[in-house]
Specification:
heterodimer; A: alpha/beta; seven-stranded mixed β-sheet; five-stranded parallel β-sheet; 8 helices; 20% helix; B: alpha+beta; N-terminal domain of TfIIb; CPE0013-like fold; 2 domains; four-stranded antiparallel β-sheet; 18% helix; 32% strand
């Protein structure tokens, strides 16, 4: 009892895809642990469309995408425990087993053991406290995702006159959502000179409703004692410092914050697993395995994605790798290649590749540090170019995925560099 | 006349340039990397359409996520949302259930996007 081959932590898109892939790879003794009372994770509140074009070849809403995966989980007969919070993950001393301690009204506090664990806890929003906005602390300031949950899952009316700080996708989606719910969105302010949201969201959520996007602008003051009365927005200079003379007052009863997502890795850190400070996710290898053998990470807890389809695909690979680990262990003795970032590349997932375990096609996913036009993505080891791929446009808001064929690895040394080559014109 | 727009068919977000004649016909499209970009520019500049998603509030107060089964004309968005908000159905609903047939004479159905018991 309480012993499993595989425990998947998180029943959102990542956890469900990982569990389904592991089950299909022959792992029958598994369980998904989910803290919410339904499967699906954040997708349930993402009622907008745009999900599933890659996975299902049709455009679905978030709840539909979640329900299709939840149906697959049930069809595969994969057990899941809802309303179950994982408190810790630890490696059991002198054993390959991992201990997963949970709390729920059904189980009380219980320790489950597993040969392998998939971390699929997702991410959370950067809160006001992490943004250093001066001013009072009135009611009416929400993170965009909190507002999304209140409006879409609870049917709440949260405000009539709205300002949004941050042009992340959730902020853009909420600009349209609040408009359709009868509110007026005065502006979306973005600190950076470019939006961190997808192009289609800027077009369909802002342009369609004539909502201005103020690039290089930020909220510099919040007014109101008990209830929000308004915010001051100012333009920022090249060093992102507000320009006092540009300060303008926007009366509003609602301020939504869409200022970035942070992988939720308290369990990972508590387990002693190394975290990459660039992604705030675990450092993983080609099998999406962390530096604790048999513990895998995928989806938004590994690095924040912009498309759920990419989450599902990546998580299925983590589930397959976990199945391989459980059945006969991952191969040892291959060459270990470290992935390094060069010009324009903020991070890569994975960070190292063991040639003994590399699949035929290794996905290297990364984000660029800036907007690049007409450049080449280069993957190079020593003097050997393994990949050269031209790109018309690369933006920080859109994850890049390049595929490295296994036969290319034989010509690689012990490091591979991924960088953006800018062509002088 | 040259009209500039951003293609939204995929995350590429191609910057499209469309040449439009005085009658409003699209003569040529450049900047696209696939055929969808050309089609998008043509439809966006002549008859723009959108998929609308919102919630319908059930009798018990639980929001039901709904969507237009196919895209509808852009200028009908608010009319369609008003029609959706004007009714409050009972539960349960199943994903795909038709909540309003032929909404606002668009020929498009409003369907439930989630099973709610």
């Amino acid at each position: 009892m309480n012993k499993y081959d595989l425990i998947v932590i998180g029943g959102g898109p990542a956890g469900m895809a990982a569990a389904i892939a592991a089950k299909k790879a022959g792992i029958d003794d598994l369980v998904i642990l989910e803290r919410d009372s339904v499967l699906g994770g954040i997708l349930n509140q993402c009622i907008h469309n745009g999900f599933g074009l890659h996975t299902f070849k049709e455009e679905l809403t978030g709840p539909e995408y979640a329900e299709k995966y939840a149906d697959m989980v049930r069809q595969e007969g994969i057990p899941f425990e809802l309303d179950t919070m994982v408190l810790s993950v630890e490696k059991i001393q002198d054993s390959e087993l991992k201990a997963v301690t949970v709390i729920s009204s059904k189980l009380g506090v219980a320790t489950l053991t597993a040969k392998a664990v998939v971390l699929a806890m997702g991410c959370r929003e950067r809160p006001r406290g992490a943004l250093n906005i001066p001013g009072t602390r009135p009611q009416g300031v929400y993170t965009a995702g909190t507002a999304q949950k209140l409006v879409n899952l609870e049917g709440a009316h949260i405000g009539k006159e709205v300002v949004i700080l941050g042009s992340g996708d959730i902020g853009l989606i909420m600009a349209r959502r609040m408009t359709l719910e009868g509110a007026h969105v005065a502006a979306v302010a973005e600190l950076m000179p470019y939006s961190s949201g997808l192009k289609r969201n800027i077009v369909q959520c802002l342009d369609d409703y004539d909502i201005p996007l103020l690039l290089s602008h930020t909220v510099v003051d919040i007014k109101g004692n008990e209830k929000l009365e308004g915010v001051y927005i100012a333009q920022v200079d090249d060093n992102r410092a507000p320009i006092e003379s540009t300060k303008k007052y926007y009366p509003c009863d609602t301020l939504l914050l869409s200022c970035g997502l942070i992988p939720e890795n308290e369990l990972t850190g508590g387990a002693g697993i190394s975290i990459d400070p660039r992604t705030n996710g675990a450092l993983v290898n080609e099998s999406l395995e962390t530096d604790m053998p048999g513990v895998f990470s995928c989806g938004n807890v590994l690095h924040v994605h912009d498309l759920v389809d990419f989450v599902s695909e990546e998580s299925a690979r983590a589930g397959e790798a976990a199945a391989k680990y459980i059945r006969h262990g991952l191969g040892e003795g291959g060459k270990s290649i470290e992935l390094k970032t060069g010009n324009g590349v903020r991070y890569t997932v994975p960070c190292r590749i063991n040639t003994a375990n590399a699949p035929d096609l290794t996905h290297i996913r990364f984000r660029v540090t800036d907007v690049y036009k007409n450049v080449s993505i280069i993957v190079k080891s020593g003097d050997t170019e393994l990949i050269r791929k031209k790109s018309q446009i690369l933006v920080p808001s859109e994850m890049v995925d390049v595929i490295l064929k296994k036969d290319k690895l034989s010509s690689a040394s012990d490091t591979i560099e991924v960088f953006i080559e800018e062509v002088a014109e | 006349m040259i009209k500039e727009l951003t293609c939204i068919c995929c995350p590429m977000g191609c910057a499209l340039k469309a040449e439009v004649d005085t009658q409003g016909n699209v003569i040529s499209v450049t900047g696209n990397t696939c055929i969808r970009g050309e089609n998008y520019a043509k439809s966006e500049l002549t008859a723009p359409v959108r998929t609308v998603t919102t919630t319908m509030i059930s009798k018990s107060g639980t929001p039901i996520p709904v969507k237009t089964k196919d895209p509808i004309p852009k200028e009908k968005i608010f009319e369609v949302v008003k029609a959706i908000k004007s009714i409050s159905p009972g539960l349960p609903v199943r994903m795909g259930d038709v909540m309003i047939a032929d909404v606002c004479s668009t020929g498009v159905d409003i369907v439930a996007a989630r099973t709610i018991k």
